[in-house]
Amino acid sequence: MVFVDKNTSDSKDNTIKELTEALKEASKCICELQSRIDRLESYIKTIDYNIQEIESVVFPNANDEYDDNFCEDIPLVNCPKCGAEFELVSTDDPDNLECPFCGTEFKIEFSDPEE
Questions:
Q1: Where are the alpha helices (DSSP H) in the chain?
Q2: Reduced to 3 states, what is the DSSP secondary structure of residue 110?
Q3: Which of 18, 45, 93, 104 is deepest in the core (most CB within 10 A)?
Q4: Three-state SS for 86?
Q5: Alpha carbon distance 43, 37 (integer Å)
Q6: pLDDT at 17
Q7: Residues of the chain with pLDDT under 50
Q8: Backbone phi and psi for residue 86, each to the nearest 5 degrees, phi listed first
């Protein structure tokens, strides 16, 4: 003979009902969020289109291709400790550089290109 504690069974049923209601509420929230996301995506596409139209009016002869040679003039420096490569910008003092990756302080000596 199996004894079933009625209080335990009711407690489990109530817990299941509460979880079911919570899942239904979560499902509604997810549906509302998806609807908002869809509207935002549509809005972003509209803005993107409008920006492209404005750019075509303001810059009618603009070349849409990225200029690969743009970054060639920026010297790169390698950290003597970690080997990381980073850009040397005009505000950097070559006698007092700090690696942005490991924090090592070092200086670089430039050689004369005519030598």
A1: 6-58
A2: coil
A3: 104
A4: strand
A5: 10
A6: 93
A7: 1-4
A8: -145, 160
Q: If we measure between CA atoms, which residue out of 75, 76, 84, 74 comes closest to residue 104?
A: 84
Is residue 90 a contact partner of residue 74, using CB atoms and an 8 Å limit?
Answer: no
Calculate the alpha carbon distances from 45 to 50, 83, 88 in Å.
Answer: 9, 42, 38
For residues 98 and 91, what is the distance between their CA atoms, to the nearest angstrom?
12
Q: What SS3 state is found at 105? A: strand
pLDDT, one tens digit per residue, over 43-73 is: 999 998 888 888 888 887 766 555 555 555 6
- Whose structure tokens read 């049923």? 13
Distances in Å between the Cα of 51 and the Cα atoms of 42, 64, 77, 78, 113 are 14, 14, 37, 39, 46
Please tell me the pTM assigned to this model. 0.40
